[in-house]
Amino acid sequence: MNRKLNFNTTFVTFGILIVLLVVFIVEIFMGGSENNYTLMKMGAMSNYAVVAGNQWWRLFTAQFLHIGVLHLVSNAVIIYYMGQYMEPMLGHLRFLLVYLLSGIGGNLLSLALGSDKVISAGASTALFGLFGAMTAIGLRNMKNPMISYLGRQAFVLAIVNIALDLFAPNIDIQGHIGGFIAGFLLAIIVGDRTMRKYNPKWRVVAAAVLIVYVVWTVRLGMVVKF
Fold first, then answer.
1. 124: annotated active-site residue
2. Most CB contacts within 10 A, which of 106, 139, 181, 222?
3. Whole-prediction pTM value?
């Protein structure tokens, strides 16, 4: 039986992938995706620039940049895979909200605990947010075999990737962990379109924890270490 992709159900996912590709092409024409000057000019994460230069917008823009084509492709493939079932499940607006805010959440932990001497970029902070969000949804829907399986799968993917990060050079492991935390909390707060939502008490707790997380990372990140 022939099957067709329904772009109406995952147009946000495809939109994200198109934006990432366009930004990468601009990186190439601006001087190269592995050129530090180009990365800084286009909004890569630099703790020193964020704090000393008051360039907080980098927490948002860094998630659209990639360092090398393999970096882009590896992130894009998993974003596509996750988006195929998470976007219909969350709904377009919730999916986009979780994705973008998780990217910021990941960069916040990188700001707080990462090296102040490096430049970082990539959609993996947002991608790990999808892992975290799917884990939270899976926990809430444990009686649904398919949703529970997808949640476990997302959690395992996150753990395996973080374990690999420990042995790989030049990986922003703090950003990955922070993205997962942010995505997990955001999924509890915003709920989803078709499945069961968390108890209001848990949503309040998650919102409080997220606020504490943001305040803690910002305060810790304000201290620049050389």
1. yes
2. 106
3. 0.91
